[in-house]
Amino acid sequence: MDFNVRKENISVCETTFQGNAEHAVDCDITLPEYLPDIVRILRCSAVPGVQSHQVTGDRISAECECLIRVLYVCEQGKIRCFEQTLHFSKQIELKSTDSSDIFVGAKTEYINYRVSGQRRFEVHGAVTVFARASGKKRYEAVSAAEGGNITARCENVDICDLTSITEKIFTVTETCETGSISEPIGAIIGSYSSAVIDEIKVISNKLFLKGELLVRTVFTEQDSLEVMSIDNVININQIIEAADITEDCEADAELTVTSLNVRYRYDSAGSKNLLDVSATVAVSVRGFENRQITVIKDAYSTKYETELKKAGIYVNSLEEKIEDTFLCRGTVDISTTGMTKILNFTCSDITAGFSVREDCVAVSGEVTADIIYADAKGEPAFAQRQIPYEYKRQLQAGDAVFTCRPNCAVTASSFVMGEGNQLDARVEINVRGFIFREQEKSVTTELLVDKSRIKTLKTASLTVYFADSGESLWDIAERYNTTVDAIMRENHISDGTVAGNSRLLIPKI
Fold first, then answer.
1. Residue 227 pLDDT > 70
2. How deeply is 24 buried, as exposed, middle or buried, from its count of CB atoms within 10 A (0-12, 13-18, 19+)?
3. pLDDT of residue 177
4. Separation of first and last alpha carbons in the chain
5. What average pLDDT score do residues 392-411 get?
6. Are 279 and 398 in contact (CB under 8 A)?
7. Which among 162, 91, 196 is positioned nearest to 409, based on CA atoms?
8. Given a cut of 70, is residue 459 above it in pLDDT?
9. Which residues are registered as beta bridge partners of 340?
10. Measured distance CA(373)–CA(365) in Å, rounded
């Protein structure tokens, strides 16, 4: 019989590239005529975003914008906001082109301002545009061999095979009504957003994604000093092309809002406030297929010289899926602010990390709270605080290694004033992610039998071997160029491990 081998393909996700480029933010701003003079600046922020990107050769070219937002108090004691969008392009050298998923984002490094007049100020800072590239790495593992007097030791392995990895950027636009807010809006002084996934339906080479864009708009009324907010929910419906994904696959998706723009206007009758919302959203999708494969851990021929090539690879099996919403409670110390009244409380940016404990896994991080308040003099002021959170999931870890790429989003936030100088925050957080059990496996990638090199071992037709307790029959069989089955038949045993110190008869093949 001719010697033949069969192989199984194993695909895993690996990060192929990480890089960044810094961009300086420098601008001299004069307020437009329709805005009142500056008395005091409460906050100056820079919100960078990536509108689109493309790969050309060995470079990633990103079209970006940076929203400069200045919150200030005017002469009438009202809060006003000035916004200016700076557009720029950035290139990042891509050292590896073997990538099918490239995520490009931006973050603020620092921002400073200097007031140079009642209507002028300078802004200086820096933002970083970063890129992360992922791709499929394929391994071929020998799963079976026939002929060539081969004997093999096999193992069944449960794997979660990476079938598809893709990324898409899309725009969500909607005109929203302000509901019960009947008075004219004086100024929008802030806008916040997050995106959550409700459902993912997988068909051949496509995904249907349903979700929600949650937008909170903070504003003042035209003839009032009060700060108010409106929450709007905009439906997300997207069809995503994902090559090699099938109905049998599980899809792990992550939504990121990369930019948000909210403008107010009146309807055609001039009687209702309307909000024109435009957001850029990036979705990253990974498709996985659960299956069991057989791999050859070791092999040899009892007749011919044999050569094996092995590789250590990390394989994942899907342990659990997280799709949950939980309430985070945190206490914020406001003793140093002189705060007498909170005008607005909104939680926005959120970080997320994954850790493993003895009896559970945890997703944890911080939520950023923006607080507009009245100080001891009754004047508007601004503070920012970090609220830690932790979401636990019972899971017996033992010695296992678990990995997860959590995606968290703030879906609601509120507060109550506690005793003393304490603020009790309540933050509703949506958390999603796949928990994988990661195992390192030694697999055979090549198995060669050289029929031109016949083994010349001189062994007796029957050898007596004194085995130690716990010794593997495989090791004994390989040493004496026989098979495990032959040893078991000769000695009338049914286990592949020696139970106690024993005398074994080793037959010649």
1. yes
2. exposed
3. 85
4. 17
5. 87
6. no
7. 196
8. no
9. none
10. 25
